[in-house]
TrEMBL record:
Name of a matching Pfam family: Aminotran_4
GO molecular function ontology, one term from the record: transaminase activity
Domain of life (superkingdom): Bacteria
Record-given protein name: Aminotransferase
Organism: Nocardia terpenica
Keyword Transferase part of the UniProt annotation: yes
Keywords annotated in UniProt: Aminotransferase, Transferase
Length: 261
């Protein structure tokens, strides 16, 4: 854990828990090879910094901090870059901000992971276009799903229109083998964007309701830590855990060359 390239004090990092105001991105680092979609992650950080703090963030500065934290390691890890102001007060979030950059890392999960089961829940994240640190609501919904025997949660609007999973985008596969993304107010995920770039077909997005879910022949979730993961179940709808189209999508994504940090 490093803050602006140096060790972190408890006082500096405690504001993340006590004030809980900031934004982040998480990326899978494939050792020295780098990160798929690194430029997209850096773009996200700069855009979100303007949205959250009204401050311009230097992407090359962030890149250097990530490189410093990794120390030219061969390990495959998930790096999280969190942008926050350690001096921000709970009662004065409108003060001029001086964002700092916290870089943390953890061991990356081995992929592909087992098929995912999702419980639907009517819920919308605050400011869904921003990848912010306000995760209580999403984690509460994930906890409820897991206590009911599912792996994770699938968010919908109050009217039952599918949006996203707790920390992933979701897409469905129609009878023609086309990948269909929900047309909804969701976080524009980096992995989602890379999958769309890798596939030799038009990007399709349309409103999808829970009632329409059984009409599809499969589903996937995407995020940077695990790439493309097959969905085996949403509520009472089940799909085969082995899926040729999902294998193709995953291989297309994994064929994208990482960008050197």
């Amino acid at each position: 854990m490093e803050l602006d390239g140096s060790s972190v004090s408890v006082e500096q990092v405690s504001v993340l828990g006590l004030v809980n105001f900031g934004h982040f991105t998480s990326m899978r680092v494939e050792g020295r090879a780098g990160v798929r979609g690194l430029s997209l992650h850096l773009d996200r950080l700069t855009q979100d910094c303007r949205s959250v703090f009204d401050v311009d963030l230097d992407p090359e500065y962030v890149r250097g901090l990530v490189r410093h934290a990794l120390q030219d390691s061969d390990d495959v890890v998930v790096v999280r870059v969190t942008v926050f102001d350690p001096t921000l007060e709970l009662g004065k979030p409108g003060a001029d901000a001086e964002p700092h950059v916290l870089v943390t890392k953890r061991k990356a999960p081995q992929t592909p992971l087992a098929p995912l089961s999702l419980q639907s829940a009517a819920y919308a994240r605050d400011l869904p276009k921003v990848k912010h640190v306000g995760l209580f609501g999403a984690l509460y919904q994930r906890r409820d799903a897991q206590r009911n025997g599912y792996d994770d949660v699938l968010f919908t609007t109050a009217e039952g229109t599918v949006t996203e999973a707790a920390t992933s985008n979701v897409a469905f596969i129609d009878a023609a083998g086309q990948l269909v993304w929900p047309q909804a107010d969701v976080l524009p995920g980096t992995t989602m964007r890379l999958v769309n770039q890798a596939r030799d077909e038009d990007v399709v997005a349309q409103p999808i309701t829970l009632a329409q879910v059984p009409e599809f022949i499969g589903a996937v979730v995407t995020n940077a830590a695990v790439g493309v993961r097959v969905v085996g179940r949403i509520d009472d709808t089940r799909w085969p855990i082995e899926h040729e189209i999902v294998d193709i999508i995953r291989k297309q994504y994994e064929a994208i060359p990482p960008e050197r940090i």
